[in-house]
Amino acid sequence: MTTEGEEPDNKPEDDGAARRSGAPRWMSLLLIGSLAVNLLVVGVVSGTAIRSMASDDDGLNRRERRMQRLLPESHHEVWKYTVHAGESEKAAIWESITVVHSRMVTILRKDPFEPEAFGRAFQERVTLQGKMLGLTGRQLLSMASTMNAAERAVMADRMEEAVARRSARRAERAQKAQKQ
What pTM did the predictor assign? Predict the structure, then answer.
């Protein structure tokens, strides 16, 4: 409100929430959102970089790494060498698995469906996976054959611990499934 002799004040009345800048509210929200997205991206990139630096990429797959954990530490490097020595045989088996997998996909898409053909292809894949497991088993046998009694005892203890952990996880999952 103005009195005589005063100039009218064209500013809106202050409702107690004084603004620090003249930027519209939507621009402030946009900047906060942009900052959040940037922090998310930086976090993901940093986490990936840290994880990749922390893991030593030794070329072992999950099964081979699990087998390596059974061995005494003094045999870990030899295990890596043994596994890598069988790479050509492993690659040939994986190539065969890929071909069989493609055949299974083709059979599934075919109309009418041929369950006997799919069953044969599935059985062939299981056989190839067994060959892969057999290769890893032969490599593990080769390693165990070079160990002394104390090293084999360490390996046996670790195998028992691994089985106990897996059994506990299975029992825990079964209990969760029963509760649901």
Answer: 0.53
